[in-house]
Amino acid sequence: MTVASTSPPLRRPRGDGALAALFVAPAMLGFLVFLLWPTLRGVYLSFTRFNLLTPAEWVGLDNYVRMVNDPIFWDSLTVTVEYVAINIGVQTVSALAIAVLLQRLTQSAVLRGIVLTPYLMSNVVAGIVWLWILDTQLGIGNEIIAGLGFDRIPFLADETWAIPTIAVINVWRHVGYTALLLFAGLQAIPTDMYEAAKVDGASEWRMFWRITMPLLRPVLAVVLIMTVIGSFQVFDTVAVTTAGGPANATNVLQFYIYGSAFGRFQFGYASAMSVALLVVLSAITFLQYRLTRAGHTDLG
Amino acid sequence: MTTLTTPAPAPTPTPAKTTVRPVRRTPSVGRIAAWALMAVIVLVTMLPFYWILRTALSTNAGLAADPTNPLPVHPTTGGFERALGLQSTKEAIAQGGAGGGLDFWRYLLNSVVVSTLVTGCQIFFSAMAAYAFARLRWRGRDTVFGLFLAGLMVPAIFTLLPNFVLIKQLGLVDNLLGIALPTMFMTPFAVFFLRQFFMNIPREVEEAALLDGAGKIRVFFRVLLPMASTPVITLSILTYITAWNDYFWPLMVSYSDSSRVLTVALAIFRAQTPQTGVDWSGLMAATLIAALPMLVLFGCFARRIVSSVGFTGIK
């Protein structure tokens, strides 16, 4: 490891094995201990009964059998998918709209900054703020609804409203970030394409569908993969707003996993559900990756 | 504070625009509609921040009596005093708060310690590894890097439970180090991100220093790392924000004040609903305390943060 003073060969660099080992060591330690080992261990624990206090006991596929027969698991998977669908749908459309407005209307950095601000808040802060705004009795949101002559909506206390509400709260927090990712993609589209189209008399609407969308598609696909994976892991907002209620209506998968592990100390079962979530996410990534490959454009 | 007191710019930003772009034609209907939409987006984005401030400065009685008043009702700093534990229990309950106070200064300090530790160490160690992957020649380099990259695929949720078991076995539950440890050494993304930068530095830069007799360690610390200050700062800011906002992992690991970070404390404060109903003014004051450091950070680095988002997201 004592390198230095002996003048190193320049033209034909030989191996730097020892030095490389030194430089990679800390990151390698972190990788092995907190990423690789937990991944393997998580799979192992899913085949055990484990409550933290006594050693894990091998039970084979018991946890998986239980999972398949657990209606709450299927409910929570359904709720999660519903959440993801609404969250991603609303977020992608809004982010695209914001990104295009930012590109076609103005290049203002201040506006970009404003749009990003909610991203700096934690999900916990976002959840609590909207909990207050949407409060049935005193929240300004419901005051406005009542002022317009409609019935107050118990956004987070009603089984049908709770999931869409949480989905939209998270859109509020994340849409600016997504919009800026898309905006970066839009910046790669040469402006003279728009100029040329304008000379030909194309409308903004037509330019959006004929230029923007086709050229943005690969970026859009990558952003979608990222946001879908993030969206499946919803937890914080649920934990501070509804805590899974009312009547399990917002018991998303990660919340159920957390409850099984820390509420009922069934670490084995919770691990099995984590494996299931991992499989779902891998399948989505793979699928979207394939679709992305198919969607290359001229700008590549 | 200043970032909060100016929430929504006037919804007619057109005059400013006309100075930037020479007017070629009168603004079309579509353009006006687009600006109106932009104004709505800005309003929806920023109003909640004003509403936090307005609520935090009101009294709970005032909020109940006049819920739609756009200004603070019966302006007071009572909410902040409650959130910071400066009020006596009797006083707090009288003003609609919960009896048990939370010491937000302490959680603030905990958050700072954890986020700083995670950001500092993670970026430093990742930069070292990135240098080895980009600039050094050694056997198995590409294989090991491939392994690191594969780590990108494992979603955070999957490693959290086993990592908790590990942290518990290490005796680090309810310890700030236990919160920081899993992300302290590296994230695959940080290594990948910095490696990209090191790859693009011309060889000549390194060789000149080596000719002068500097060792490779010296070259890394004195030449390459300073050159990488832009990506390092960019990555640091984003890592800091992420570490600061994390809730799930600290929730698993911390049980008492000694290791409680702001996000967790805030959720607990929210759960302490007093008999009379939620202490909204105290809760919003606490929310503001939890959010303020990130808003200040944003105030200082806004341009860099904004431009770094597109930079980091798409590879």
Portion in strands of chain A: under 5%
What's the mean pLDDT score of chain B? 83
- Number of separate helices of chain A: 12
Question: What global shape of chain B is seen?
Answer: globular
Report the span from N to C terminus of chain A.
44 Å
* Structural classification of chain A: mainly alpha
What Rg of chain A do the Cα atoms give? 25 Å
Please summarize the sheet with the most strands of chain A: 2 strands, antiparallel
Sketch the topology of chain B as an H/E string, one letter per element.
HHHHHHHHHHHHHHHHH
Structural description of this entry:
The complex is a heterodimer of chains A (300) and B (315). In chain A, 70% of the residues lie in helices and 1% in strands. By secondary structure, chain A is mainly alpha-helical. Chain A has a two-stranded antiparallel ribbon. Residues 1-12 of chain A have low confidence and may be disordered. Chain B contains 17 helices and no strands. Chain B has helices at residues 2-5, 14-20, 29-56, 60-65, 78-83, 89-94, 104-135, 141-151, 156-169, 176-184, 188-199, 203-211, 216-227, 229-245, 248-253, 262-271, 280-313. The longest helix of chain B has 34 residues, at 280-313. The model of chain B is unreliable at 1-20 (pLDDT under 50). The interface between A and B is large, with 104 and 103 residues.
List keywords for this structure.
A: 300 residues, 70% helix, B: 315 residues, disordered N terminus
Describe the structure concisely for a colleague.
The complex is a heterodimer of chains A (300) and B (315). With 300 residues, chain A is mainly alpha-helical.
Topology of helices and strands:
The complex is a heterodimer of chains A (300) and B (315).
Chain A: H1 17-45, E1 48-49, E2 57-58, H2 62-68, H3 71-104, H4 109-116, H5 123-133, H6 140-147, H7 159-187, H8 191-199, H9 204-232, H10 236-241, H11 253-263, H12 267-294
Antiparallel strand pairs in A: 1-2
Helix pairs in contact in A: 2-12, 3-7, 3-9, 4-7, 5-7, 7-9, 9-12, 11-12
Chain B: H1 2-5, H2 14-20, H3 29-56, H4 60-65, H5 78-83, H6 89-94, H7 104-135, H8 141-151, H9 156-169, H10 176-184, H11 188-199, H12 203-211, H13 216-227, H14 229-245, H15 248-253, H16 262-271, H17 280-313
